[in-house]
Write a structure and sequence with these properties.
- The protein has 340 residues and is mainly alpha-helical.
- The strands form 2 sheets. The protein has a 3-stranded antiparallel beta sheet with strand order 3-5-4.
- β4 and β5 form a beta hairpin.
- The chain starts with a helix and ends with a helix.
- The N terminus and C terminus are likely disordered.
Length: 340
Amino acid sequence: MPLRNNLLQVILLLFARLMDVSVLRPNLVLPRAMTKHDVALLKVSGSSATPPVNRNVSDAHFRTLRESALAKTLLGADGFARFWLSDLRRLTLFLTVMSETPWLRSGTLGNFLIGLLAQRSQMSSARVAQLIDIAVSTGDFIRYRDPRDARLFALEPSPEACCALEGLVGSFCASIATFLGRDDPLRRMSDEQRLLAYMLFVHAGLDLLRPLSMDDRATGSMAFFLVLLDLRLHSPVAAADFVRREAVRLRLTKVTIRNVLRRAEAEGWTWRQGRLVQLTSLAQPMIDSWLETIAAKLSELFTMMEQLASPGATLPANWQPLLRGQPQAMIAALQARREA
């Protein structure tokens, strides 16, 4: 009798594999049905339940951006970049600290209070203090007493930190120039113009990162976003092949990539059909809408830099939100030189 039952079970499993019957396969997770809240969310984002046919960001354009120098820089081309740029919260902390240094404030000091840095980077004060200690011990930043208040400290970027930001802005300009089919404006800038371009990039990057839920380490990491974006390009794909390629591409372990896929599946972003993994019908239009928003913001920043590099150009009024909290003396001096 047991032998007969085992034989029957084998036959049913073979039949299930041939017919791809999900009911007989407990490890197959189907996408959850769209609720009224999902429909409302799609209406707010301006998307539909099915992927739009005519998108501003085509697959070919996005592949160009995904394989660009900017993506490689963010993934960590060296040890400094892997530590500071490949993690969203550390990237936010790096940009925040750089925005407060005298290098980008015409020689004046900003605010280096641990609580403020923690709030901006969505990390705990203890974690920010630990990262600052690491940055000082590795020579990424130089810490000294704030001359305005001996109870506080100030930070100065090392040459490596300055080169990292310069490289990040340079890869951004080169990548977006290729993406939009335009010339790289950074090559035409003077040293003063480049410094203002770095300032613009830092504040635009912080404005772009601020709305993200980076406090959720499950779905707010750089790896989670990049895995979803790569699935947008290659979905559906064999899970084993995707895990192997992503581990090499993102310089992460296979275990980490598998964990990311499990989190995405638990949140309703992906689902499995046999050995294949793909985006759900809810996730794909949301990712497309997010890509269009990101491309629009990056294009807007690129246009600002083009205007900055144009001969006789003046500072547009819409730059002011990006320049809030910065010394106006430097901007006024640059403006006077350009008008002269």
